[in-house]
């Protein structure tokens, strides 16, 4: 079933029975801006939070550790994940899967991860139809 982030989901037993999970292989972006505050550890689980007050992008999704922003979801995924997280009961985490790297192309330092989204079946199915469930795909364009 879906992993819990630091808060309790309401109506646990009934809600969990209808919850599904989707995974997206990608990167945590912006590590270069947060490297003084966070050292990524493989296997570390971080929370995803919408940032509607972000002055650069009101659909930004932050990657959070202990209430501190340590990176962001890539801009091409952020709008979709932001809308998903805005639906009641939907949650998301990032599991760190590798060490920081620079792939070039102006992306700066990134940290490989798997985004795990947990939510109502109808929202997960909608994201699958958008071809976001990419466990078996190359994450090079994330």
UniProtKB/TrEMBL annotation:
It holds the Pfam family HIRAN. InterPro entries: HIRAN. Keywords: Hydrolase, Metal-binding. One of its GO terms (molecular function) is zinc ion binding. It comes from the Eukaryota. Residues 40-89 form the HIRAN domain. This is HIRAN domain-containing protein.
């Amino acid at each position: 079933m879906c992993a819990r982030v630091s808060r309790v989901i309401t109506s646990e037993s009934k809600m969990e029975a209808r919850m599904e999970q989707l995974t997206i292989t990608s990167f945590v972006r912006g590590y270069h801006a947060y490297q003084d505050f966070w050292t990524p550890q493989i296997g570390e689980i971080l929370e995803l939070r919408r940032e509607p007050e972000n002055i650069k992008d009101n659909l930004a999704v932050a990657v959070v550790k202990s209430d501190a922003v340590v990176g962001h979801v890539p801009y091409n995924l952020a709008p979709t994940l932001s809308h998903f997280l805005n639906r009641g009961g939907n949650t998301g985490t990032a599991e760190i899967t590798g060490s920081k790297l620079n792939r070039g192309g102006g992306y700066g330092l990134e940290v490989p991860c798997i985004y795990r989204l947990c939510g109502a079946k109808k929202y997960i199915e909608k994201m699958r139809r958008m071809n976001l469930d990419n466990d078996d795909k190359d994450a090079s364009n994330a």
